[in-house]
Design a protein that fits this description.
mainly beta, 6-stranded mixed β-sheet, 1 helix, about 45% strand, globular
Length: about 120
């Protein structure tokens, strides 16, 4: 059974940083691309970043490019998102998901999410 459990969210002031984590189980972690998604209040799920297998390539949506870094530890089955220079618009529930930008919706596996609130 696929499980994705996010942690690390919280309340942070504008300009601050957070590191999100995702613990995965139930599948061969090293064999799949992984993404971070987010859902802002009143909006749908939005893809924001992906890391392909072997940590070879990473991609980001424009709104977070330069402020976020995705990484993975295949030995621990962990996915991370380091976020910096946070803005109020980054307030959302953040989810990790199996798949890349083009495939996560079809694969349909993401966690319950961790809440990030950016406010002074």
């Amino acid at each position: 059974q696929v499980q994705l459990v996010e942690s690390g969210g919280g309340l942070v002031q504008p300009g601050g940083s957070l590191r999100l984590s995702c613990a995965a189980s139930g599948f061969t972690f090293s064999n799949v691309a992984l993404s971070w998604l987010r859902q802002s209040p009143g909006k749908g799920l939005e893809w924001i970043s992906e890391m392909l297998t072997g940590s070879a390539s990473t991609y980001y949506t424009a709104s977070v490019n330069g402020r976020c870094t995705i990484s993975r530890d295949d030995a621990k089955s962990m996915l991370y998102l380091q976020m910096s220079s946070l803005k109020p618009d980054d307030t959302a529930v953040y989810h990790c998901a199996i798949g890349a930008e083009a495939t996560w919706t079809r694969l349909g596996s993401w966690g319950q999410g961790t809440q990030v609130a950016v406010s002074s």
